[in-house]
Amino acid sequence: MKVLITVLVxxxxxxxxxxxxxxxxxxxxxxxxxxxxxMNRALDTAMTxxxxxxAEGIQAPNLDDPEMVRLGxxxxxxxxxxxxxxxxxxxxxxxEGLWPEPPNLTDEVLPWTPxxxxxxxxxxxxxxxxxxWGPSHSDAELWAIVAFLERIHGMSASEYQxxxxxxxxxxxxxxxxxxxxxxxxxxxxxxxxxxxxHD
Length: 199
Fold this sequence. Notes:
Elements: H1 2-24, H2 37-55, H3 66-79, H4 81-84, H5 114-123, H6 139-149, H7 157-164
Helix pairs in contact: 2-5, 3-6, 5-6
């Protein structure tokens, strides 16, 4: 009985503390407040396992199609450079005020498979500045971005400029059709509604 009472008292204390933090306004929600290391590591670990779990079963198409890479470069240039940079292009000022800090994708090798990168680009990450591009982009366009990301490391600034000037939305030539590798690709639904490429 004493153990039960002790557990209930502890739970009540946590509830009171939680309600105080919620309604008092003392908790600083500013992006300058980066919490403490243990909390950040816990959130990062939870994010990693979540992506791995939800991306399981997504089948990547052939990402070697040069036209797919070119299309992806155009979409990346239009939507991603401000936060993540590009070969020969530094991230914009907006990246300096974001938390968590967005990775510079030309410098950092991220531990994601193509399927996991597709899931991240499509659905985004809660409580970060990473948006979900699924509502505004087709799966074919998202796979094209992934194809480009697979080649961004080691790409020269001149190679990047060549791609974006013929890469669709951000370039001088609009891509009128999907890359051949994506013509047979199927769509997906939001998590919880059953992804069509999942087992």
